[in-house]
Write a structure and sequence with these properties.
Structural class: alpha+beta
Oligomer: single chain
Order of helices and strands: EEEEEEH
Radius of gyration: 14 Å
Length: 90
């Protein structure tokens, strides 16, 4: 993250899994493209969903992103691994 005068001006917060010799992004928050949003990522790296947070400024979006990943990392990880297993079956 970057700050100016004590406020976050840009950020990226990620949940990543390391397995099978690689690092895989599961959830990515950032403030690119007009404001804070969450990218929900599939095992192939494509976006399953993009959740905008129009009501949050960049500073608040950063705080929200860190809190959300701390609180929900187990759910995000489990879902990602379910999607991975389903992909492997096909």
């Amino acid at each position: 993250f970057s700050t100016a005068r004590g406020k976050v001006t840009e950020f990226v917060v990620k949940l990543e899994l390391e397995f099978e010799g690689g690092i895989h992004e599961v959830i990515r928050y950032d403030a690119a493209h007009g404001g804070p949003h969450k990218d929900v990522l599939m095992p192939d790296g494509s976006k399953y969903d993009v959740v905008p947070y129009h009501n949050l400024g960049i500073d608040e979006g950063f705080t929200f992103a860190v809190s959300d990943i701390k609180e929900n990392w187990a759910f995000y990880t489990e879902r990602f691994l379910r999607w991975l297993k389903a992909k492997e079956k096909n």
